[in-house]
Every structure is written in C-alpha cells, then in structure tokens.
Write a structure and sequence with these properties.
single chain, 170 residues, mainly alpha
C-alpha cells in the first residue's frame, strides 16, 4: 500500500476503532500522534513490510516480541488498553499470539504503535518538529540500524499525508 492508502484505510479508521474500544482517557489520536505513527511505519517498514526481512520483527511498526510487545504488555496502563483491544479483536492476550497477529492485523499493529508511543516520557513532538520526532522515535523504538538519512523523507511524507497537502505514492 502507499502511505496515503495506509493512512486513510488503516490509521484513521483504526485510531477511531481503538478510541471506541478503550473509551475515554486513552492516548491522543491527534495530528502529532498520526504523524509519529506514519513516520515510524515508514522508517521501520517503508509502509510495505509486515514481517521484517531477515529478522523477527512484525507489523509496519516492526515490533519485536521481547522489546516492544513486552513493553506495552508490561505497562500498567497500556496493558489494560491492549487487553481491551485484543478482546474486541478476538485475539488472545498472550505475547506470542499478539506478536504474530500484529503482522496481519493492522488494527492491532496500530494500537501497539500508539500504545508504545504513549509509554515514552514526555509529550509527542509537535507536527513539523522533525528532529525532536527523530529523537523520540530512536529513544522509544531503539532501532538496531537507525538509518537517520531516511528519516527526513519518511517524516516529511508522513506530515504531507496526515496534513493533507497531496497524495503520496512513494
């Protein structure tokens, strides 16, 4: 899928679904959250790979079982939210099932991405703060091979898609 298709077909309806499932008091789904989600999915998977090439990670967010999945499940607040989302999606709440299901269930992958961002200290960077967003991403995702040279393209693409300037096919 293109970044535009992922945003309109997965992120927008997925955040609405997630918000309805967990109810009031959940993480924000505003423009800064949407830009971060899209930027990370571009950085981690080029908006194409649900399973890491040559590695263990799953979903567009490229979560690993012992890192991101365990982190979201181990946080008192996000664990409750994730249990609610898993119940709504009829996905058993155990690490190995969630890990594998994220590769094919975009709603679960989206919730995991948003919950993992919520676990980070401090507020999300404002839209347009590319360098702050990079630091936020690196601190929270801890990529083994960070590729800082790819971030400007991925962030700018995400920002254009989210803010509605023009469809992006890259």
């Amino acid at each position: 899928m293109t970044p535009t298709a992922i945003f309109h077909d997965v992120v927008v309806p997925g955040l609405l679904y997630m918000t309805r499932a967990i109810g009031p008091g959940g993480p924000t789904t505003d423009a800064p959250a949407r830009v971060m989600i899209m930027s990370i999915w571009g950085q981690e998977s080029d908006w194409r790979y649900r399973r890491q090439n040559g590695g263990p990670a799953r979903s567009y967010g490229q979560f690993e079982s012992g890192g991101g999945v365990a982190g979201v499940m181990g946080n008192a607040t996000t664990s409750k939210w994730l249990q609610t989302v898993c119940a709504a999606l009829d996905i058993p709440y155990d690490r190995s099932t969630i890990f594998e299901a994220m590769a094919w269930n975009d709603l679960l992958a989206l919730a995991m991405t948003r919950f993992n961002l919520w676990c980070a200290p401090g507020p999300l960077p404002a839209v347009g703060q590319r360098d702050a967003a990079w630091n936020y991403y690196v601190n929270q995702w801890r990529p083994g091979k960070p590729h800082p040279d790819a971030w400007p393209r991925n962030y700018d693409t995400a920002m254009r898609v989210v803010m509605g300037d023009a469809p992006v096919t890259a």
